[in-house]
Structures are given as C-alpha cells and as structure tokens.
Amino acid sequence: MTDNNVNREVLCSVRDLEVTFGRGRKKFVAVHNINFDIYKGETFGLVGESGSGKTTIGRAIIRINPVSNGSVIFKGEKISGKISRELDKMVTQKIQMIFQDPMASLNERAKVDYIVAEGLINIRPDMPKKEREAKVSEALRDVGLLPEFATRFPHEFSGGQRQRIGIARALIMEPEFIIADEPISALDVSIRAQVLNLMSKLQKERGLTYLFIAHDLSVMRFITNRIAVIHKGTIVELAETEKLFAHPLHPYTRALLSAIPMPDPDNEKKKVVTVYDPTQHKYDTDPPRWIEIEEGHFILANNEEEEGYRRMLEEAEG
C-alpha cells in the first residue's frame, strides 16, 4: 500500500502536541512533543505498547482529550483548544472514531438504528425520519450487514458484527478522516481479516484517510502506508511501512519487531525476543533530537546514536 508522499495534501498535522492529566503533584504528562503529518488518502499507523500514549493522541485529535500544549491542524484550521461552534460541527462530522471494544462502545439499551443514526440526529436534527432511515439502511449495507438488523439490540450480534455497526456509525457521517483505535484487538483472529479488508475496501471507495492505532506491528504491515513508533509518550521512529520493516533502527522498534509471532512453530521456538532497555541511551550529556536519517525516515537520536544508525543503514544497503 506504500506510495510516494511527495506533493501530497496534508489532511491533519500534529505539532508539538502535549496532553497532561491531573494537576499539581498529581500531574502526569501522557504525551509530549509529538509531531507528524497525515496525508489525504493514506493509512498512518501509530504503534506502541499499552500505556504508550497512542490512544491519548487519537483522542486529542478528535477533541475528547484537551491539549495542554501544541496544536492539531485539520484541513488547514487549528481544531485544538477553543474553537467556534461551526468549526466544532465540522470536526464532529469530518473526523470519526472507531473504538477498540465494540461491546463497550455501543449502547446496549438502544436499537441499532438509533446507535448508527445518533451522530446524524445531533448534526442534522431537521432531517426527515424517512431519509434518516434510508441512510441507516445504506450504512449497514455498506459494512455487510442486513438493513433489517436496524431493529435489533447490540447483544444479539457477534463481536465482528458489532464492530461493523461501529464502522457504520462512523460512515453515516460521511467523514474524511477516521481514527481507528485498536479496532480489531478485541475480535477473534478469524474475524480480524474481514474487518481489515472491509476498512481497506471502504477507504478505496470513499477516499478515506485513517489513523490506525495498534500494538501489533504484524497487522500494521498489511494496512498502513507509514508508521510512527511511540514509547512512553514520545515518538522514537517514523518511516514508510516497508522501510521500517526493512531497516528498523531504534532499539525499541527492533524489540517490537522481534516479538511478532511466527506462523512456523519451529521458527517460533528458535526466535530470540529483544528486550528494550531505555537506560542504554546516554542522553544526560548528549540529548536526543528528531533527525531525518534517510528520506522519509525519522528517528529520535543524539549525535553518537546518529552515527551508529547511519552506519547500520550503509551496511544494510551495502
């Protein structure tokens, strides 16, 4: 899926983003100094362990988490902090989120037609009931569900079907940008490929842009154009997907890649998992900075590490 990013339109920019929870002595900086662009029509991956700040970034973009520093720019307009009612309405429609747990994100007491139409009811309260029902039927059809499912409750569906309802709820708003927060991690392995294929199909048909958040790099390889690797609230490496798999440089990226399960049981037994040790960086005297180590491949490194990474790339290419 990877393609050239030259002369591509930037849909969303995150600049010097910081998100803080709590105050005073209980203050916790969840993510800090986060910078990246997402191009129109691409799938941008954000990968890291649980608690690394991936979901916090996604929720900051969609305005669920307030930003304590930096900015989020969408279609050339700053959408973080205080914004006008008109801009807020545009963000609500144009940016949608697919949540991790389809069990928790759907209202168990509401029927599917209300769940799918809820955003539409808020944005377009004047829309005639017949038109809204037609849009719900179309959205359900688009995600491979029967329109007659609209009269049922979420508990009557499987996990995969519930996630499709969640996708239909996002699609009915006709968004340009969808933040998919671990959309398949709560699903059975057999269902995961179906949901990923559905998301790819919808992207092609509708020209959607995705921010795909996950902790599993093997999934990322099949759906993303570029990947940012995040560790404890800081992005440590960012590159085109195939480049990252071919030349992983940062020790944390290499540790994540070493943990990917192998389909062959014999190889899986022989596999050596690398454990990342943050104390290996000597940042006290030589602090790190964000470096473009090769075209489109960025890494957090100090001067000494930069030399080592450049040698690694020369050896890999030589």
Describe what this molecule looks like in 3D.
- With 318 residues, this protein is an alpha/beta fold.
- It has a single domain (10-247), classed as P-loop containing nucleotide triphosphate hydrolases (Rossmann fold), CATH 3.40.50.300.
- It is 37% helix and 24% strand.
- The strands form two sheets. The protein has an eight-stranded mixed beta sheet with strand order 6-7-8-3-9-10-12-11, sandwiched between helices. Strands 2-1-4-5 form a four-stranded antiparallel beta sheet, covered by helices on one side.
- A hairpin with a 6-residue loop joins strand 1 (10-21) and strand 2.
- It is globular and about 65 Å long.
Q: Which structural class fits the helix and strand makeup?
A: alpha/beta
- Written as H for each helix and E for each strand, in order along the chain, the element string is EEEHEEHEHHHEHEHEEHHHEEH
Please give the number of β-strands.
12
Q: DSSP strand (E) fraction?
A: 15-25%
Strand order of the largest sheet: 6-7-8-3-9-10-12-11
Biggest sheet character: 8 strands, mixed
Morphology call: globular
Q: Can you give me a brief rundown of this structure?
A:
With 318 residues, the protein is α/β, with parallel strands linked by helices. The chain contains eleven helices and twelve strands.
Q: What are the defining features of this structure?
A:
12 strands; single chain; 24% strand; 318 residues; Rossmann fold; 11 helices; alpha/beta; eight-stranded mixed beta sheet; disordered N terminus; four-stranded antiparallel beta sheet
Topology (SSEs and partners):
Elements: E1 10-21, E2 28-39, E3 43-47, H1 54-61, E4 69-74, E5 77-78, H2 85-94, E6 95-98, H3 112-123, H4 129-142, H5 159-171, E7 177-181, H6 189-206, E8 209-214, H7 217-223, E9 226-231, E10 234-240, H8 241-246, H9 251-258, H10 265-270, E11 289-294, E12 297-301, H11 303-317
Parallel strand pairs: 3-8, 3-9, 6-7, 7-8
Antiparallel strand pairs: 1-2, 1-4, 4-5, 9-10, 10-12, 11-12
